[in-house]
Amino acid sequence: MCNSLVKFSSPVMMTILMPVLIIAMLASGTAYAGAVVQVTDSSGQPVQDAVVYAELASGPQLAKTANAEIQQKDKKFMPFVTVVQTGTSVSFPNNDTVRHHAYSFSPAKPFELKLYSGKPAAPIIFDKAGTVVVGCNIHDQMVAYIHIVDTPYFAKTDAAGTARLPNMPAGKYVLKTWHPKQPTTASVQEQGLQMDNNNPGLTVKLNYKAI
Amino acid sequence: MRLHSLESRVVTLFIGLLLTVQLAAYFAIGNAIDRNARNAVEDSLKINEKILLRLLDQNAQKLIQGAIVLAKEYAFREAIGTHDTETIVSTLSNHGNRIGSDLTMLVDLDRKITAFSNTSKNSRTGNGGGANNELSSSLQQSVATLIRTAEKTGSAASTAIVDGKPYQMVVVPIEAPVTISWVVMAIPIGKALVTDMHELSRMQISLLTSEKQGRWTANVSSLSDENASRLAQQLPSSEKQVNYLPALQIDDNQYSARILKLAQNEEFSTIAVLQLSISQAVAPYKELQRNILILTVFGAIVASIISAITARRITGPVRQLAETARSLGAGDYTATINVKQKDEIGDLARTFMTMRDGIAQREKEISRLAYWDTLTNLPNRALFTDMLEEAIASARSHEKSCYVLMMDLDRFKHVNDVMGHRFGDILLNQVAIRLSAELGPGGTKPARLGGDEFAILLPNSTKENAQDLANRILRSLEKPISIEDQTVDLGAGIGIAGFPEHASEAQGLLSRVEVAMYAAKLGNSGAIIYSPDIDKSSQQSLSLLSELRAALEQQAFRLYVQPKVGLDHGQVVAVEALVRWIHPERGFIFPDQFIPFAEQTGFIRQLTHWVMNEAARVCHVWKEQGIHLKISVNISTRDLLDQDLPGKFAQILHTNDVEPASFCLEITESAIMDDPVRAFQTLDRLHAMGLELSIDDFGTGYSSLAYLKRLPVHELKIDKSFVLKMEEDIDDTKIVKSTIDLGHNMGLRVVAEGVENLAVMNLLREMGCDQAQGYYISKPMPSADLPAWLDKWQEQQAQAQPATQSQAQQS
Questions:
Q1: Taking the CB of residue B537, how many other CB atoms lie within 10 A of it?
Q2: In chain B, what residues touch A103 (CB-CB under 8 Å)?
Q3: CB-CB: which of B78, B109, B175 is closest to A140?
């Protein structure tokens, strides 16, 4: 069991994923296997901050209520890339001394958090799959990406380009990989994934340069 | 000023040099100015091209800044995010107006123009277009190309041609915060740029466009429309990659131009032409060049004046010298040179003066030598002739007469020969003094014509004056002259002739007076006035002398011989050699007609030589034929005075291989008496050689018996004048008898000449005369005839006087 546990590099991730995992394990009680996905870009370099997620071939999973946080520190959004399941509410706490004006014109979730400091009054609920680019109207260099997926099986690559998907029931999935550097006009890269008890590591090679 | 004069050459040289240097400088400067101006224009064009580029860049930056402002607009981004097209277009329009962009567009990430605003004043129609179909493909292409660049660099600026018009176009991304769209803004490249550039650089700028590589059309220009179209015509076609035109001629102005390509697409290309007038660039230098030219002209004038003055300072004295030299050449030695300069010219002038003085001095000396006799200090022949000419001219004009006396000393040559030339010179001086004394002081001076010839000019005189003077001179010369303890007797012959009586001009008069003088000398008659008669004889004499010389050359002389017969036995014992002259025209000429003349003129020496030579030859011939006869040859006074005579005779005898004893030389008494001392010397030497001597014509002269005693003679010849008539004249008989006795008493052989009949011959034999010669025996005959005559004579003798012959044979 221990070896099947996803080791999260980030404590934030842990906080996001841990309940999901626990729920999944408790709910089915069937055999699970977690997939390890190695992501490289077109030049073969390992890619960090790539979002890897597996969607059931049958259709989207129901959205679950979850929370996530993108804090602003040192005039940066942290984390740079956030992946959440549909319906997740994301709070934007400002840990800087200056004010920020977070906004997004992304069709998935346009929002605006007018000049604020500290924790805004309410978190933003991302109820539609897609990519939301978050900016700050005051600080042009500040950018964050929120990728909203319709599946609980998702992960983000670490500095070595490795993403560990949580355990999921055997079955037929579509493995999708997204990265902020993906050209706007391009669609998300995807490949088939058959999950069983004995899944080897997967490799995804992005067809664009990500570094 | 003559063209070849020193002065003009100096001036020409000066000005030529100056002009050459100045003009060379002028053209060099002009050339440098032109080149520099062109270089400066080229550099300036390059700089201005950079300025233009910078201006364009600034415009682009300004536009980019404006676009960025728009791209950062939150509401605008929000409108984009929410696809609020109406708001987007109005924002584009508003912002475009605000920053002065003509075309303002929103372009999506697929490089499609999604919103479009045209705020240009010309085109209000396109304001608010959201659709793509009404936009030109050239715009869409340009935008797409620009965005392709911007995708790499963030923002981009370039030039583009839209609907045939050039634009500056910029693109900036709209970030929210990643790029969601592009804002494109464009401003036309046109009037504003040209105005800016023209104000900034004061340079002509034109924007031109060509369609499909064709001719250029001027869009906007700082030039006038006319000039702009001229420019367009001169530009090379757009496909040629030319960016610099060094020389463009527009409206009387030369320009250099730089071509800058602003924008190009498949259809159009647009260029900016920057042009700068070379003429204007050169203009300030032209002023300088004109000043140099003025300076050159002024310098040339000043140089001409200065060089002319300098040259005149040099040539003035030179010309003066030349003038003086010319008058010097004409014989004027009085001209002075007024040159006070201390330089080389002054030196030349002073040297010239010294030269002039030297020449004057020498000319005086030369004329003295030419006109004065250096020995006696009397005028010479040349001066005398001049004086005579003057006197004749004067006499002619005054219708008077003038006379000339010419005098020749007697025996002067003799004195000169015997006493030496120094003595002769002193003698001539004494004569000169005597003549001068006789003429009196202040009167006319005598002249020495040469040798011992003197002449006296008597202007304005009569024949009587002249004769009187001649007599006085003759009397004065009668007094002996004493020189160095020697007393010399002098005599002279004087000729007198006068103008206009005897001649009408000087030379004629001189020759007349000379003739008269010779006549006087010949006749020993003191002074003779010229008459045509003596002239005739003198002319004859002259021609005779030349004929004699010719005769000698042409061998016209013949040797004749007259036999001498021994009276005791009747045999021929000797012959007398006589000369005969066979003249080619006149025929046979007797010796009487030329011998005296030959003696006078000295020709007798040559004649004697000829006779002696011929006699020796004949003697040799006879000797070979067995005829041994003594040959007598006549010797004259002049022969005796010839110191070389013995030597010459010895030579002749030797050459012909004959003995001296075969010859007898006959000398007249008078020949000896003329100069007994030298005659004795010569006779002694001849005698010593073994030649026999005979006194010819004995009894006619005034010979001293003392002399006769001393003479080394062997024979006396009784003059034929006694012998011819002794038959009839008892006195002559007595003289002949006495002479025979005298001769015999002195131990001499006695020969009688002129025996013309038997009676005389017999008489002479009775008187004891040794030999006889004459026509009775034989006339003189050619020497070649003698052998035959001899044979005949002997035969005759044998018949007539066998007894005598046998007697002779016995003895």
A1: 14
A2: 74, 176
A3: B175
Residues of A in contact with B110 (CB under 8 A): 185
Residue A208: helix, strand or coil by DSSP?
Answer: coil
DSSP characters over B584-644: TTTEEE-GGGTHHHHHHHTHHHHHHHHHHHHHHHHHHHHHHHT---EEEEEE-HHHHH-TT
Give the span between the Cα atoms of B678 and B646, in whole angstroms.
13
The whole-number pLDDT of residue B608 equals 92
B623 Cβ contact partners less than 8 Å away, ≥ 6 residues apart: B658, B662
How does pLDDT run across B518-572, given as a tens digit for each residue?
888 776 667 888 888 776 666 666 677 788 888 888 888 999 999 999 998 889 9
Question: What was the ipTM of the complex prediction?
Answer: 0.73
Nearest Cα to B122, choosing from B57, B78, B178, B187? B187
Measured CA to CA, the distance from residue B567 to residue B776 in angstroms comes to 13
Q: Are strands B103-108 and B113-118 parallel, antiparallel or unpaired?
A: antiparallel
Whole-number Å distance between alpha carbons of B468 and B799: 72
Q: Give me the residues of chain B with pLDDT under 50, please.
A: 1, 122-133, 803, 805-811
Tokens of B36: 């520099």
Q: How far apart are CA B471 and CA B476, in angstroms?
A: 9
Is there a contact between A138 and A125 (Cβ–Cβ < 8 Å)?
no
CATH code for the part of the protein at B372-530: 3.30.70.270
Stretch A186-204: mean pLDDT = 80
Q: Is the CB of residue B47 less than 8 Å from the CB of residue B203?
A: no
Please tell me whether the peptide bond between B459 and the residue prior to it is cis, using omega within 30 degrees of 0: no
B673 Cβ contact partners less than 8 Å away, ≥ 6 residues apart = B701, B702, B703, B707
| Amino acid B808: pLDDT | 44
pLDDT of residue B2: 56
Going along chain A from its start, the domains and CATH numbers come out as: 2-56+156-183+197-205 (2.60.40), 67-148 (2.60.40.420)
Contact assignment for B177 to A135 by CB distance below 8 Å = yes
B257 touches B227 (CB < 8 A)? no
The answer for A 37-76 residues in CB contact with B (under 8 A) is none
The answer to whether residue A11 scores a pLDDT higher than 50 is no
Local confidence band at A82 (pLDDT 50, 70, 90 cut-offs): very high
Name the strand (E) or helix (H) holding B537.
Answer: helix B532-553
Q: What is the CA radius of gyration of chain B?
A: 70
- Top-tier CATH class for B41-292: alpha beta
Could you tell me whether strands B527-529 and B492-499 are parallel, antiparallel, or unpaired per DSSP bridges?
parallel
Q: Using CA of residue B187, residue B190, residue B192, residue B198, what is the dihedral sign?
A: positive
Residue spans per domain, chain B: 41-292, 336-369, 372-530, 550-713+780-810
The pLDDT score that the predictor gives to residue B130 is: 45
What are the angstrom distances between the C-alpha of B491 and each of B144, B326, B521, B578, B597?
A: 156, 52, 9, 34, 21
Under CATH, which number does the domain B550-713+780-810 receive? 3.20.20.450
**Residues from chain A contacting residue B82 (CB–CB below 8 Å):** 105, 110
- Chain B residues with CB under 8 Å of a chain A CB are 72, 74, 77-78, 80-82, 109-110, 175-180
Interchain CB distance below 8 Å, B177 and A110: no
